[in-house]
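Hey L., structure's done. Input below.
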Amino acid sequence: MHLRSITIKGFKSFPDRTRLEFGPGVSVIVGPNGSGKSNITDAVLWALGEQSPLAVRGHSMQDVIFGGAPGRQAATSATVELLLDDSEGVLGLGPEVSITRTLERNGDGEYRIA
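Output:
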């Protein structure tokens, strides 16, 4: 089993829909300081159910929602979808398993596993 892709929208420094694809084995994300590398690992942790805002480097869970930038409005929600390749059947839910977590600015949230 491996992480096939992650799709991020409105999460921390990713206001727009961003999709990263991974193959089996080792994947490396590189970039300058402040470019969002740690936010990608925070997104994976958050989508897998992390409940502590401190674990994803925030003060409250609403801190994961994109807060705006010069010329950009704040997002109304954050969504992270993890697509897992489970062709070996470890989870027994099919060859692909999608885990999606969404949080609205008003505090409503949901998980979806398919």
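The CA atoms of residues 52 and 61 lie 8 Å apart. The mean pLDDT is 94.

-- N.
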